[in-house]
Every structure is written in structure tokens, then in C-alpha cells.
Amino acid sequence: MNHDFQHYQRGLVLLEQNRYEEAANEFRDLLAANPEDDQALNLLARCQMSLPQTEKDALATIGRAIGFNAQEPDHFIIQSLIQSRLDDPKTAIKSANEAIALDAAQPEAFSARAMAYTRQSQWAKAETDCRQALELDPDNDFAANL
Question: What is the pLDDT of residues 58-77, one digit of tens each?
């Protein structure tokens, strides 16, 4: 089995188990061998945004992923969620809009934009985006809960 694949697999399992620090270490090991792997950067940013006091690191990490692949809507979705957590809803909306422009069939992009709208107390816009996300994916827990 490929060593990189093992890091991906372990990292994904740990991420699913909410073991963010351990998962982050797997993705860092993967990036040590291939620092331009935008998917590994995305996964590392997901871990970082879930750890205390590392949201700014997560923003820098996802920025690197976007630098390597600006055509991946998921990178902008993660960026939007991080920006919302950092209480920067205007920028978060722009990032979500970028994700939507790249792929309007991504329910997570609408959920991310809805989250940013809630930070601005724009409830009607947030509801509209949640409904759009649920129309695209009726099982989208994030949109349903939001």
C-alpha cells in the first residue's frame, strides 16, 4: 500500500472520529512529502478549524490550497466557514459565492453562505440558502440544523 495513501486513509478515519489533532498530524506527514497537495491542505484546514485557537492557521492553510487549485469549490466552502468562525461574514459570503460560481450544485456552498448570513443577522437570506442546500441534498444536516 502506498505510504501517502495510508496517511490519507488514517487521517480521514481520525477526522471522522473528531480526533482532529491526530488527523492533522497525518495530513502534515502527507504534506511533508508533497507540499503542493491541495486536497491534503484542505483536510488539514478542516482539522485546524475544529481545534481551539487554530482558526487563523486554518485560514492560511486553505489559502495555500486555493493557491494550488483555485478551481476546487470545496476549498472556498472551507474558507467561508473559517471566515465565519473568525467573525468576518462579508468575506465569508464572498468565498461562498466563489464556490457557488464554480459549482452551483454544491449544497455545502449554500450552507456556508447561510452561516455567514446568520453572522449578519440576515435571517431571510440564510433561510433561502438553507432551503437551496436542502433542495440539492435533503439529507444535508448542516443546512437542516442551521
Answer: 999 999 999 999 999 999 99
Q: Please name which of 127, 75, 130, 119 lies closest in space to residue 101, comparing C-alpha atoms.
A: 75
What pLDDT shows up at residue 101?
97
3-class DSSP string for the chain: CCHHHHHHHHHHHHHHCCCHHHHHHHHHHHHHHCCCCHHHHHHHHHHHHHCCCCHHHHHHHHHHHHHHCCCCHHHHHHHHHHHHHCCCHHHHHHHHHHHHHHCCCCHHHHHHHHHHHHHCCCHHHHHHHHHHHHHHCCCCHHHHHC
- Dist. CA 124–CA 135, nearest whole Å: 16
pLDDT digits (tens, 9 = 90+) for 20-49: 999 999 999 999 989 999 999 999 999 999
Q: Measuring CA to CA, how many Å separate 81 from each of 15, 25, 32, 57, 90?
A: 17, 22, 26, 13, 12
